[in-house]
What does this fold into?
Amino acid sequence: MGAFPEYSRGSFHLAAESYGGKYGPAFAAYLEEQNAANIPDTVPIKLESLLLINPYMNPAMQFESYYRFLVSPGNTYDYKPLTDSIATHLYSAIYGPGNCLEQLRKCDAPGGDAACAQASVSCSWSIDAVYDTVTTRDEYDLRELKPDPFPYTFFYDYLNRPDVQVAIGATTNWTAFSDAVYSAFQLTGEEARTGDYKTQLKSLLDAGVTVAVVVGDADYLCNWFSVQAIVDDMKLPGWSAAGFVDVATSDGVVHGQTKQAGLFSFTRVYESGHEVPFYQPLLALELVERVITGHDVATGRQGPLTADFKTVGPATSDYREGNATVQFSVTPSNSSYQTTSGRPGVPWQQGPPPIGKRWLRNTRNKRIGRGL
It folds into this structure.
């Protein structure tokens, strides 16, 4: 607001991705609390929407989903990499006595920093290690082997250009990862804490704020099985009566399915990894436009929406992509990405782009790393 005072009295929209599933609801709820406080000599921030992309929100549901995504019922790309014995090991690491879920419950008891830090490390190493070791695939896109060149990292240098920083009002350089913040999160077991997202999101909806959750269905780490379970568990008014319908863009292409009740929606995006705007840019753009203007996610033609709006369709999203876009050899680092086919494209003509750095962080906490 200080950098662009001309916008201070307009509407405000907040978007968050990955670990932003914790930040986004908390920040948005705090804004509403401050508005309600009517603090003298302040300007209310008119929050109108919150967009969450492949969010990490509930540790227990997130870790439980890994077995379902890899083993039973399995992901919609028909990729099942685990032998029966490894699948049994994964199940035990999640559900066995003293293992991940039990430690997460101790953290939420609450068990303090020590219990939460132990749960965070134990769950990450015992469960994430299975995927990393057995599949050697990108945790953020099941379709690609590591090192995965997507998304491109051109924006690293772009965001630190002086003219760009002046244009967006940035006062510090952009960095992809903070070791200091990561270490602090590890010491307090931040990843293992469930948080109060249910209360926060419900309060936002009660205040008339639109909340849209969008998930690329090729993402393993914050996969759509877990996020759908999380939103279903919130038991929002009208949610059980709503159903899934296709989401199409202005060119008539169906990119996924959405379920919407009132101001809340959950959208599954086909052929998309963790960063939906990279893999499905047209859908991402038009979806943002629909959300911030208060229209329905599926078509953008109905709105402004009221509390009694709901999509009518099947209770589940059952479309299966199959493994046509799953790569079984490492994609060259100079490959382009074809958003229309969901496959690697022709090589770059002017030399390779810098390869994505996220695959280098295998020994770190991936959820926290990507969220920052």
Observations:
- The chain has 13 helices and ten strands.
